[in-house]
Specification:
The chain is α+β, with helices and mostly antiparallel strands and about 160 residues long. The chain has one domain: GTP cyclohydrolase I, C-terminal domain/NADPH-dependent 7-cyano-7-deazaguanine reductase, N-terminal domain (GTP Cyclohydrolase I, domain 2, 2-Layer Sandwich), CATH 3.30.1130. Helices cover about 25% and strands about 30% of the residues. The protein is built from three helices and seven strands. A hairpin with a 6-residue loop joins strand 2 and strand 3. The chain is flat. It starts with about 30 loop residues before the first strand and ends with a helix.
Length: about 160
């Protein structure tokens, strides 16, 4: 069971009066302590209903976002992550920018050992975009390079 001290920074979970920001808001992100920092393990989030706006036309863009990370001392709280991702709803940016912004915000928040963000965006104008961004500490640089190669291979193979 978590102690009150460990849950001190978790304010959104269980709160029935949470406001949903529909403008980009990284300040909504919250963390909690990793009880198993000695273990190398993977945490994955799946957001199949990500929405943002085209920065030029203002048209809505729909995507599927996957976030995976190997935690260090802090972990992102899932409700705060949901609210954060929802805050992109009226944010006008390219798909590649959104994926990189999400990655950078989560790295800054948690200082993970490894983190990757993949976006699978629905076609607009007949073209789908699948951006991938990843980060690694010094001990996980080989994993970072390997995962980037895998994504490159998988995405180019899927289009043939």
């Amino acid at each position: 069971m978590r102690t009150e001290n460990e849950l001190e920074g978790v304010t959104l979970l269980g709160n029935q009066h949470v406001k949903y920001s529909d403008n980009y808001n990284p300040d909504v992100l919250e963390t909690f302590p990793n009880k198993h920092p000695e273990n190398e393990y993977l945490v994955t989030f799946d957001c199949p209903e990500f929405t943002t706006l085209c920065p030029k036309t203002g048209q809505p863009d729909f995507g599927h976002i996957f976030i995976s990370y190997i935690p260090r001392e802090r972990m992102v709280e899932s409700k705060s992550l949901k609210l954060y991702l929802f805050s992109f709803r009226n944010h006008g940016d390219f798909h590649e920018d959104c994926v990189n912004i999400i990655m950078k915000d989560l790295v800054k928040l948690m200082d993970p050992k490894y983190l990757e963000v993949t976006g699978y965006f629905m076609p607009r104008g007949g073209i789908s975009i699948f951006p991938f961004a990843n980060y690694a500490d010094a001990d996980h640089k080989e994993l970072k390079a390997q995962r980037l190669r895998e994504q490159f291979t998988n995405n180019t193979r899927a289009t043939r």
